[in-house]
Design a protein that fits this description.
Na+/H+ antiporter like fold, about 75% helix, mainly alpha
Length: about 400
């Protein structure tokens, strides 16, 4: 980097941080997830509006570090034991909730005249569910401990794990330049194999790391060692032919099984709060607002595709809730699976970097992610309204 490039990079970094946080705060005050504010900040600050955040190599590098750290944090907050406790219904909901949106996104993109590789990325972008957004809404509704809440979170965890494998598969297909059974099967085996090996080898290594850190007294050793562990796992995943974020997620799963899980999570969170918003702002900055004008004829196919993807994304996940069994509110479960949030944006970003998502399709996917994330909180609140017990002397209201 030339010395003259440092100033613009620092300015863009500062603008992304402040703009993302301020609009994130505004969205939270309006009852929406902060990620929507960060995405909107990118659109407003990006080249097509104010031009304060340019999509430079430096910003994209910071964004990539941010997404690696974000997936590390998601891994730290993932409870595999909870997934096992509601394993049957959660896995069924997760699988149906992946197949239906994937099929809808894939077919709609093909019908719009785009190649099969683009359709694969679009379908994949609709598969995952945002754990962070869903858990926040369920917590506000006091439904986290309900059976529906446990099934939703268990299915979201499974979605994330399976979704990362799907991402690794389609990324390898994009690198190979073709869509074939051999490429897809090889990529899937490599991704699953890496996760299994990473957990088997990583768990004892993670415990050894924590014991070593426990004997050290230098300031910041816990967070430094934990982040380094995640970065090395990301490098290992990439070297093994998987995606870097799969390695970071696996590192989080590993360290979550140590006795310092909460300490590591609390130490890592401020770093994620600095780097992760840049990722979301950078995605918003890549959206050309001129392509959102329906009066321009060449924009209409992309906007129509966006509407179709929103419908496929909402209906696919909502119908998946009806795959659960037992005395549960299936519609509530389906609504809880709708938000894509940060995970869908990761798919969109990697698809654009690989050249698999042309600009109109990239914008369509971002709109779909934005819409599904926006719709989920009020829909969950509407479905939960009137189903909570009144407050009694025995404790707070509960969802059931």
């Amino acid at each position: 980097m030339n010395p003259g490039e440092l100033g613009p990079l620092l300015l863009a970094f500062a603008a992304a941080l402040l703009g993302g946080k301020l609009l994130g705060e505004l969205c939270e005050r309006l009852g929406q997830p902060a990620v929507l504010g960060e995405l909107l900040a990118g659109v407003l600050l990006g080249p097509s509006v104010l031009g304060l955040v340019t999509v430079s190599a430096g910003i994209l590098l910071i964004a990539q570090i941010g997404v690696v750290l974000l997936l590390f944090e998601v891994g730290l907050e993932t409870d595999l034991e909870e997934l096992l406790r509601v394993g049957g219904p959660a896995m069924t909901v997760a699988l149906v909730g992946m197949v239906l949106p994937f099929a809808g996104g894939y077919l709609l993109t093909l019908l719009a005249g785009f190649p099969s590789l683009t359709a694969l990325f679009v379908g994949a972008a609709l598969t995952a569910t945002s754990i962070g957004i869903t858990s926040r809404v369920l917590s506000d509704l006091r439904a986290l401990s309900s059976r529906e809440g446990r099934i939703i979170l268990g299915a979201a965890v499974a979605d994330d794990i399976l979704g990362l494998v799907v991402l690794a598969v389609v990324s390898r297909i994009a690198d190979a330049g073709s869509v074939g059974v051999w490429e897809a099967g090889k990529a899937a085996v490599l991704s699953f194999a890496f996760l299994v090996v990473a957990l088997l080898v990583g768990i004892p290594l993670g415990r050894l790391l924590v014991r070593f850190v426990g004997r050290a007294s230098v300031r910041g050793i816990l967070v430094a060692a934990s982040v380094a562990f995640a970065l090395l796992a990301a490098v290992g995943a990439q070297t093994a032919g998987s995606a870097a974020i799969v390695g970071a997620f696996a590192a989080g799963l590993v360290l979550a099984r140590t006795n310092r899980r909460n300490d590591i999570r609390d130490a890592v969170r401020p770093i994620v709060d600095v780097f992760a918003p840049v990722f979301f702002v950078s995605i918003g900055a890549q959206v050309d607002v001129a392509r959102l004008n329906p009066a321009v004829a060449e924009n209409r196919p992309g906007l129509l595709l966006a509407l179709g993807l929103v419908a496929a994304g909402v209906l696919g996940k909502f119908l998946a809730g009806y795959a659960a069994w037992g005395g549960v509110r299936r519609g509530f479960i389906g609504a809880g699976m709708i938000p894509r949030g940060e995970v869908g944006l990761i798919f969109a970003q990697i698809g654009k970097q690989n050249g698999a998502l042309p600009e109109p399709v990239f914008v369509a996917v971002v709109i779909a992610v934005f819409a599904t994330t926006f719709l989920a909180p009020p829909l969950l609140n509407l479905l939960d309204r009137g189903r909570r017990r009144p407050v009694t002397s025995s404790g707070p209201p509960e969802s059931h």
